[in-house]
From TrEMBL, chains A, B:
<dbReference type="InterPro" id="IPR015590">
    <property type="entry name" value="Aldehyde_DH_dom"/>
</dbReference>
<protein>
    <submittedName>
        <fullName>Phenylacetic acid degradation protein PaaN</fullName>
    </submittedName>
</protein>
<dbReference type="GO" id="GO:0003842">
    <property type="term" value="F:L-glutamate gamma-semialdehyde dehydrogenase activity"/>
</dbReference>
<feature type="domain" description="Aldehyde dehydrogenase">
    <location>
        <begin position="91"/>
        <end position="519"/>
    </location>
</feature>
<dbReference type="GO" id="GO:0009898">
    <property type="term" value="C:cytoplasmic side of plasma membrane"/>
</dbReference>
<dbReference type="InterPro" id="IPR011975">
    <property type="entry name" value="PaaN_2"/>
</dbReference>
<keyword id="KW-0560">Oxidoreductase</keyword>
<dbReference type="InterPro" id="IPR050485">
    <property type="entry name" value="Proline_metab_enzyme"/>
</dbReference>
<dbReference type="InterPro" id="IPR016163">
    <property type="entry name" value="Ald_DH_C"/>
</dbReference>
<dbReference type="InterPro" id="IPR016161">
    <property type="entry name" value="Ald_DH/histidinol_DH"/>
</dbReference>
<dbReference type="Pfam" id="PF00171">
    <property type="entry name" value="Aldedh"/>
</dbReference>
<keyword id="KW-0520">NAD</keyword>
<dbReference type="GO" id="GO:0010133">
    <property type="term" value="P:L-proline catabolic process to L-glutamate"/>
</dbReference>
<dbReference type="InterPro" id="IPR016162">
    <property type="entry name" value="Ald_DH_N"/>
</dbReference>
Length: 571, 571
């Protein structure tokens, strides 16, 4: 191992780390990555070259050189083409992966916090280099639209990774490497001790990635673990292997180029029919679990893997409380975007819209009735989705067939319960991929007491207009659901400052964050690295936050030595 | 609530907080408390007045005004007199305590980090004010000698509390209260958001105190919890209620004097025959557990209460590796002190002395045989304990009858296994308390393969001289025991720098801290606040460290609000 290299990478990336530290402190916007795929920024060749790189990977064995391979695995279906990508990945022997990771962990411990940061930042920029290819890989596994796949699964995801890296750096730097200590002990006089502190990693981390955002949560977990000394085995979703494999390959290349053991980062892929996740999580050598996915499995892990460090980010039923609309077009427009965006397959997508039966006030003293609010929302959704090009850019494709089935089930259940379909879902014709699995949002009207219909996440483009007795009841119901069923992003529309404050208190008690009067100028559910604490950890939608000190501080421990300063050396 | 008061307390104590922050950073010695009970510092009256205060509490109902009292409880025996203190404490209704704590938690959330620090530091100084009375209460419950009860359970314990307070302050201050965020969103232009971040406590913490150091670990847990917003129910050991009751009463008085709800700090006492600990720990309203005590119960809690945040500090079998003795008198003298100190009833007391069968080198090239090392150690222990006054100051009393029984059991088991008693234990005659339960250390010689004899903590003044094939074998055995059975403080005596480094690596791998060549100028097992990380959390002797960021960062979470800046206000 050439010790200079990581130190040189630190020097090269130091300005970024300093800027990231500053961003964490001020929580203002910052990014060293290019968010837009525009050819005016990248030139005309890079997008095409990225697409070609993606296409060259299809229909063959993915070239991932890692230990413990005992065969081939992988069966991914593109939500855009309905066809298999036909890429085969290493089928792993889990024990061999854990052994390789543990062997890699030992020399990695010797790197300083600065050196680790240098290597990890280098990885982040190496990952950005393949942002175009990654965008296509993300489209054809997760179903994201091109723009989201480029920015949301590229720069924005890397931002979250660098944010976690930065928190880990802060936590590591809180521990000095040495100290001089002296104290008077009565008659024996002053004793001087030389103390040394060593950062000690926990062990191998298994990072479970989700289907619809393969890397957005994975990068923070990977960098938090690497920074604190823990090797990582990434477990992709069976339909989201390619983006993870590309990232793992690239990170391993960076490690190798630094003269480091690439087995600090490994991948364990599987297929739906022969899953290996539980085996990995319950493996005695697994010390840390970072999980993104369904609430059900997340809670199972929290309960059954409690002997490991467990960090989860799952889902809830995100609520919207409607009180009054100072700017109906902008606010309903923002909400419609949120309902359509990536076909509501985001953990931050709104689902339950709690509307007082008496309607909502708008500017000028008028009131929109409950039905008018629903109709305006439905009309806006229709406007957003009638042009296939616009629909494609906004909605992308639906990752799982189960989500399409869910739409059908919800429609029938709502009708059976006496609810009303305000806007039906329909597949839109994708301009580039005629066979794409698509669905516009289903909007249904239900009574407040029909909690069994809307009281948990429906992972599909489905939105409930919930008729509430009053705004207070709307707030109470939304906050209670957040507390009991979980919520990652909740929304409030109100121009009454007292009601906003009451809502803030109610959501604080519920342990849920609240976005207020978010309009259509930006995606209402955008979660900004360095600024928005993602997941509170106080409700069933996950126990960890991207990113705070709690996300990193327990991933390492401290071993200490002390020794008296010899009398001749002591002053 | 008068909001000015906590802010004023912050101003009054700000210099201490700043100094504590500095001490955490440099890890050098600092204390705002008076460690010595000397009359030259305190005047002649305060020691006597403290003793009188203690005596005035005996034989009556303890005046602790807290909610949920359903009777009286308490049966403590003084290890010095063998008699009951006959103090009766409130017998609690657990649900009423949790309810009171939850009610107190709500207004407490409104205090800033500065205000909380002000209140907690005020509490710490109020606790110091009763250091003399606490010393007597600690003596007659825990069995500590007067000096240790004054400094170790007074200033030194408060130091650890303020250290945890300071770490919590750092973690809280890492989260800003507000932020201004702006970002360009393509064609819509720049969007500005105003963001607010609220610290949110977890819930009620139950702090389980141990018998021999009722407050040393309790103060850090109490202050870490209060700082992060969590109310505390202290659960004293059935024979260690009085010091805890005094502390709880004093902390409640400080809260009341600030106009705050005193139910942020409550006590739940019990008796050995009718324990309530498990009921408290498994209560649905218990969110956090801080536990100090036996390894067995600590591991039980980690396994069975994994749905709570669990912080444990338990015990291990602390090893001593002997390679060479540059200063035999000073080093063996230090070790003898460590074996006698508080009759080895400390989680940092050495127990297993791993000595090469071929002996250990001393300065000048000579070698002390295995037997000579043991004999010198035994002779030094005899010298330390033959004068009853000196024995009393060093050994104190033995808290539990079970520890006396353990000495007997070890002696018989060792003999039956073919081991040898090098120095037998005996009760020494205490100069002030003729009936005191006392015991000088038992020193026995065993073979390295007799791990069943020495492979777990013997909570009694018992020390094993373990005949090892070589120094390497000694190191290996000690490090393995530390990793597998737990260790809080391990010790090495060597003047060979290469061997010291090998030992540091071995103990790093074992996840255990190592004190090297500690001589008799200070207590070898003294753990210094702000400097020595106490417990690594990497072996079975506990999962938490006093104090690091991991000890505090997860005790609170963050709830966030965000809202666009209105167009007219935006720049």
């Amino acid at each position: 191992m050439s010790a200079e290299r990581p130190a040189a990478l630190y020097e090269r990336n130091k300005a970024h780390l300093d800027a990231a530290l500053k961003a964490c402190e001020t929580r203002s916007y910052w990014s060293p990555f290019t968010e837009s795929p525009s050819t005016s920024l990248h030139g005309p060749e890079r997008p095409a070259e990225g697409k070609a790189r993606f296409e060259a990977m299809l229909g063959r064995r993915f070239d991932l050189d890692q230990p413990g391979t005992i065969g081939e695995v992988g069966y991914e279906i593109s939500p855009y083409t309905g066809k298999t990508l036909d890429v085969r990945y290493p089928k792993p022997d889990p024990q061999a992966l854990f052994d390789a990771a543990k062997a890699a962990m030992k020399p990695w411990q010797r790197l300083t916090a600065e050196e680790r940061a240098g290597v990890c930042l280098e990885m982040a920029f190496a990952l950005e280099e393949q942002a175009f290819a990654n965008a296509h890989a993300t489209m054809h596994t997760a179903g994201q639209a091109y723009l989201m796949a480029f920015s949301g699964s590229g720069a924005n995801a890397l931002d979250r990774g660098v944010e976690a890296l930065t928190y880990a750096y802060k936590a590591l730097k809180d521990v000095p490497r040495t100290a001089d200590w002296e104290k008077s002990f009565g008659r024996t006089g002053v004793v001087q001790l030389k103390k040394q502190y060593r950062i000690r990693a926990r062990g191998v981390a298994v990072v479970v990635c989700c289907a619809t955002f393969p890397l957005w949560n994975a990068y923070p977990a990977v960098f938090a673990n690497l920074m604190t000394g823990n090797p990582v085995i990434l477990k992709p979703h069976p339909n989201g292997i390619l983006p993870v494999a590309m990232a793992v390959k690239r990170m391993r290349e960076t490690l190798t180029a630094c003269g480091l053991d690439p087995n600090m980062v490994l991948m364990a892929a599987d297929e739906r029919e022969t899953p290996i996740t539980i085996e990995l999580l319950q493996h005695p050598d697994c010390a840390i679990i970072d999980y993104t996915g369904s609430q059900r499995f997340g809670l199972w892990i929290e309960e059954h893997c409690a002997d490991k460090l467990v960090y989860t980010e799952t889902a809830g039923c995100n609520g919207v409380v409607m009180d009054s609309l100072s700017d109906p077009e902008g606010l309903i427009g923002g909400l419609a975007n949120g309902l359509c965006g990536f076909s509501a397959q985001m953990c931050t997508s709104p689902q339950n819209i709690h509307i007082p039966a008496g309607g909502v006030k708008i500017a000028g003293g008028e009131t929109l009735s409950f039905e008018e609010v629903g109709q305006r929302l439905a009309d806006t959704i229709v406007k957003r989705t009638e042009d296939p090009k616009r629909a494609a850019a906004l909605c992308g494709a639906v990752q799982a067939r189960q989500s399409i089935d869910l739409i059908e089930q919800v429609r029938e259940r709502v009708k059976a319960a006496g609810g009303r379909v305000v806007l039906d879902s329909r597949p839109y014709e994708h301009p580039d991929f005629p066979g794409a699995q698509t669905a516009t949002p289903l909007v249904v009207e239900v009574e407040a007491d029909a909690v069994d219909l809307y009281g948990e996440e429906v992972f599909a483009p489905v939105c409930f207009l919930i008729r509430e007795p009053s705004r207070e009841a709307a707030l109470q119901n939304a906050a209670t659901l957040a507390a009991e069923r979980g919520a990652i992003s909740s929304y409030l529309y109100s121009s009454d400052r007292d009601f906003i404050e009451a809502a803030q208190d109610a959501f604080t008690d519920a342990g849920a964050s609240l976005w207020i009067n978010m309009d259509q100028r930006m995606p209402i559910n955008f979660a900004a690295a360095y600024s928005d604490y993602h997941v509170t950890g106080l409700n069933p939608a996950g126990n960890a936050c991207l990113a705070d000190l709690a996300f990193v501080a327990d991933r390492f421990r401290i071993v200490q030595f002390r020794e008296p300063v010899p009398a001749e050396a002591a002053q």
